[in-house]
Amino acid sequence: MSRSKYLWHFGFWTVMAVLILSGINPEDRFTWMLENAWIFAGLAVVAWLRFRGTPLTQLLGWAIFFYSLFLIYGGYYTYEKTPLGNWMMDSFGFTRNNYDRIGHVLQGFVPAILYREVFYRNRVVNGKGWLEAVVFACCMAFTAIFEIIEFATALCFGGASALYLGSQGDVWDAQWDMVCCGIGAIISIVLLSGIHRRQLHKIIKK
Q1: Which is nearest to 32 in space by CA: 170, 160, 180, 178?
Q2: Would you say 196 and 116 are in contact if contact means Cβ atoms under 8 Å apart?
Q3: What is the C-alpha separation between 91 and 189, in angstroms, rounded?
Q4: Which of 111, 131, 139, 148 is the most buried (most CB within 10 A)?
Q5: Alpha carbon of 108 to those of 12, 86, 97, 117, 130: distances in Å?
Q6: Rounded to a whole number, what is the distance in angstroms from the first to the last CA of the chain?
Q7: Is the pTM of this model over 0.90?
């Protein structure tokens, strides 16, 4: 088995195993299902791409791997009850569990890599500057849609969705979530766009 195939199998089946184990006794079953719906969809897409013989860059593959584990951890404990977030609250004097804030930074950081990979490989946007501008805009559009989904969930399920929303009494939670996403997208663009384009160029040349 080649190194790339080994890494793909390692990442895919590790995430699958952790996801299944997290579903045995989560803090809140309803929240676990909502939070991990993205993981189930992502695993299906990755498996489909593998079946088609469409390789991902190593950067995107590792980003998806660690982001999936992050989401599963939050889905298991719920974002406002994660032990890591409680530790940060005690250690740094935060007034709330900020695990969800980190999650929204990653909501911009990781999708920025995903959007760039899709747009670059399909030649959707010409020019580096325009590409990164569209990547940033798509990240912000996604986080806005995500907040609308949370709003719709609250309307449909009422109090049952409180742990899923994770606002912890903050009336500006949706706005902070979008700010965090924008910060994550900018960091990703500044730090990783060059590395990512080089990896994409190698794949396309093959």
Answers
A1: 160
A2: yes
A3: 30
A4: 139
A5: 22, 23, 20, 14, 18
A6: 19
A7: no
Interval 27-64: pLDDT, tens: 989 889 888 998 999 999 999 988 888 889 999 999 99
Q: What is the per-residue DSSP string for the chain?
A: --HHHHHHHHHHHHHHHHHHHHTSS-S-HHHHHHHHHHHHHHHHHHHHHHHHT-PPPHHHHHHHHHHHHHHHHHHHH-GGG-HHHHHHHHHHT-SS-THHHHHHHHHHHHHHHHHHHHHHHTT-S-SHHHHHHHHHHHHHHHHHHHHHHHHHHHHHHGGGGHHHH--TT-TTHHHHHHHHHHHHHHHHHHHHHHHHHHHHHHHHH-
What Å distances lie between residue 174 and 113, 157, 167, 181, CA to CA?
A: 23, 18, 8, 11
Structure-token match 């849609």, residue found: 145
Angle at 92 between CA 90 and CA 94, to 5 degrees: 75
Cα 108–62–30 angle (5° rounding)? 60
